[in-house]
UniProtKB/TrEMBL annotation:
<dbReference type="GO" id="GO:0016616">
    <property type="term" value="F:oxidoreductase activity, acting on the CH-OH group of donors, NAD or NADP as acceptor"/>
</dbReference>
<protein>
    <submittedName>
        <fullName>NAD(P)-dependent oxidoreductase</fullName>
    </submittedName>
</protein>
<dbReference type="Pfam" id="PF01370">
    <property type="entry name" value="Epimerase"/>
</dbReference>
<keyword id="KW-0560">Oxidoreductase</keyword>
<feature type="domain" description="NAD-dependent epimerase/dehydratase">
    <location>
        <begin position="10"/>
        <end position="167"/>
    </location>
</feature>
<dbReference type="InterPro" id="IPR001509">
    <property type="entry name" value="Epimerase_deHydtase"/>
</dbReference>
<dbReference type="InterPro" id="IPR050425">
    <property type="entry name" value="NAD(P)_dehydrat-like"/>
</dbReference>
<comment type="similarity">
    <text>Belongs to the NAD(P)-dependent epimerase/dehydratase family. Dihydroflavonol-4-reductase subfamily.</text>
</comment>
<dbReference type="InterPro" id="IPR036291">
    <property type="entry name" value="NAD(P)-bd_dom_sf"/>
</dbReference>
């Protein structure tokens, strides 16, 4: 995402969450980061400052996004077992507030974090593709399908382009983990690949290698986000082609072949 100053200002919501606090220190040094979360403080380990922001407050979001070139929206309740009452504020109201505020602030690129839970209902043998429509198996996944639709709405009605990331099974530790399942291995997203995914989502011009437009509509694309495992729950070829995503980690490295 080009910036007039040469150093893009990127705002991250939910920066103190698992993905944010792990990946933020690995984001490009050339970015100017404005990290936000519900409470102000510092990220453990890196010491990066975090500003307070309630994503359900659209006016506060617009103020936080002022002058930003891109917004990475990580804030939300990430629990597939969460109730509607738990999900409604951040995942539904907050997603709309962030999207509307990004448009109002003239943000060039909005990155919304969806989840493979948005397409969790198909049979286990099905490899999820970027073009698959939402088909969630739980309410959490339904709110992530909502995030994708909000992104489509933003791209269709404003000058803000949108990348919707269907995040896989994020885990800060390398596998194997206690009780590791093949499903988790096949959907794993590592810390450094998460940072690479966010980088690519902000910096891509959303055009294919051959120069043709891509996505589900002008300025909008849904892509899958897992590491470079040899057995993957989700196809990341579109992510690689469209965003220039370069994953490095393989959950199956060192594991016996099935």
């Amino acid at each position: 995402m080009p910036s007039a100053s040469g150093a893009p200002l990127v705002v991250v919501t939910g920066a103190a969450g698992r993905i944010g606090r792990s990946a933020a220190p690995l984001l490009p040094a050339g970015w100017r980061l404005r990290l936000t979360d519900l409470r102000a403080g510092q990220l453990p380990g890196s010491g990066l400052a975090v500003e307070a922001l309630d994503v359900t407050d659209e006016a506060a979001c617009a103020a936080a996004f002022e002058g930003a070139d891109a917004v990475i929206h990580l804030a939300g309740v990430p629990d597939p077992a969460a109730t509607w009452e738990q999900l409604l504020p951040a995942n539904v109201i907050g997603t709309h507030a962030v999207a509307a505020a990004a448009v109002a602030a003239g943000v060039g690129r909005l990155v919304v974090c969806s989840s493979l839970q948005a397409v969790s209902a198909p049979v286990a043998e099905h490899q999820v593709r970027s073009e698959d429509p939402p088909r969630p198996a739980n309410l959490y996944g339904a709110t992530k399908g909502w995030a994708e639709l909000v992104g489509s709405w933003v791209a269709a009605t404003s000058g803000t382009s949108v990348v919707a990331l269907r995040i896989g099974y994020f885990n800060e530790q390398r596998p194997p983990w206690p009780g590791t399942t093949p499903r988790e291995l096949a959907a794993w997203l590592s810390v450094r690949d998460a940072a690479e995914l966010l980088r690519a989502s902000v910096e891509s011009d959303l055009r294919e290698v051959d120069g043709g437009p891509v996505g589900h509509g002008a300025g909008f694309v849904v892509v899958n986000g897992t590491s470079a495992g040899r057995y993957r729950k989700a196809d990341v070829s579109t992510t690689q082609r469209v965003l220039g995503y370069r994953p490095l980690d393989d959950a199956w490295a060192g594991e016996p072949l099935p």
